[in-house]
Amino acid sequence: MAVLELAAGEVAPRALDPDEAAMLEAVVRQSLGVGAGERVVVVTDPPQRPLAELFVHGAARAAADVRLLVMPVAREHGSEPPPRVAEAMASADVCLLPTSKSLSHTHARQAASAAGARIASMPSITYEMAMRTLRVDYAAIARVTEALADMLSAADTARLTSPGGSDLHLDLTGRRGLADTGVFTAPGAFGNLPAGEAFIAPLEGRAHGTLVMDAASLALDDQIPSGGEPLVLTVRDGRVCEMHGPGVEALRVVFAQLGGGARTIAELGIGANPAARVTGNLLESEKVVGTAHVALGSNVHFGGVVDVPFHRDGVIDRPTIAAGGAVLIDDGRLAV
Question: Which domain holds residue 113?
Answer without folding.
Answer: 4-133
